C-alpha cells in the first residue's frame, strides 16, 4: 500500500527530470545565428541614435540620446568580453526606413524617428528572448548574458515609449 501512496510523487519526479533533460537538449542556435542579426540591429540603432543626436530643436532628445549611447556602449563592452561582434551592413528594410526618415520633416520626422527607435528596440529584445529561450543559444555563457540584458533593453524601450508619448 505504501508503494501506491508514493507512486504519484515518483512519477512527478521522473517527469520533472525528463522535462529538464529534454529542455537542456533543445538549444539550437549557434553563436552566429545570434551575432549576425545582433550586429545588424546594433548598426541600425547606431544610425538612429546619430539621428537623435542631430535633433537640436527637441531638448528632451539630448538626455534620451545620452542614456541610449551610454547603455549601448556598456552593452557592447560586456559582449566583447564574451565574443567578438561581426561587421554587419544595414538590412534592406533598415535602409528603406532611413530613406523614409530623410524624406520627413518637422513633427513627422520626430514621430517617425521615435517609431523606428522603438521598433529597433523591440527587435533587439525579441532577438534576446529568442537567444535566451528554450530553443536558444547552445553557448551557455552567451545565452545567460542575453537573458541578463533583457531588463536593460526593456528599460531602453520604456524610455523610447515615454518620449513617444510626450511628443
Strand-pairing-aware structural class:
mainly alpha
Oligomer classification = single chain
CATH fold node name: Ferritin
Net shape? elongated
Q: Please tally the helical runs, counting DSSP H or I stretches of 4 or more residues.
A: 6
Largest sheet: none
Number of strands: 0
Number of domains: 1
Residue windows where pLDDT falls under 50 for at least 5 positions: 1-23
Order of helices and strands: HHHHHH
User: What distance lies between the first and last C-alpha atoms, to the nearest angstrom?
Assistant: 71 Å
The helicity comes to: over 70%
CATH class: Mainly Alpha
State the CATH architecture: Up-down Bundle
Classify the beta-strand content into a percent band: under 5%
Protein name: DUF4142 domain-containing protein
Organism: Pedobacter terrae
Describe the protein.
- The chain is an all-alpha fold.
- It has a single domain (28-166), classed as Up-down Bundle (Ferritin), CATH 1.20.1260.
- Helix content is 80%, strand content 0%.
- It contains six helices and no strands.
- The protein has helices at residues 2-25, 31-53, 61-82, 92-102, 106-132, 140-166.
- Helix 2 (31-53) packs antiparallel against helix 5 (106-132) and helix 3 (61-82) runs antiparallel to helix 6.
- The longest helix has 27 residues, at 106-132.
- It starts with a helix and ends with a helix.
- This is DUF4142 domain-containing protein.
- It comes from Pedobacter terrae.
